[in-house]
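Lecture 7 notes: from sequence to structure.
We start with the chain below.
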Amino acid sequence: MCPDKIVPSGAPSDRVVSELAAYFSRNGYVRRQNAGRLSREGYLGYKKGDEVRLTAQSPEELARIRALLERAGFRPGKPFVKGASTASRFTVGRR
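Predicted C-alpha cells for the same chain:
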C-alpha cells in the first residue's frame, strides 16, 4: 500500500454524505484514467488516475463542496473552470 493512500478516520456524518451525493447526482461525474495512454507512456509519463468531479454553480457552492469533501476525509484538488461552472476534483483514497 502506498503511503499516500488513506482511509478516512471515522465515517463522515450522514448529512455530509447526503449533501455530497446530491451534488454528484445533480451533475457530478467520474473522469476515468485512459488505459491505452497509460500502457503506451507508462506510469512515469502518464500519472493521471480516476477522479470524482463535482461541479459548482457559484463560488459559494464551490467553497461548500470543498468543505464537505474535507469533512469527509478527502483533500480536494485544484478547482478548474468548465463552461459556466467550476469543478472541484478529488481522488478517492488519497489525501
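Points to note: The chain is about 40% helix and 20% strand. The radius of gyration is 14 Å.
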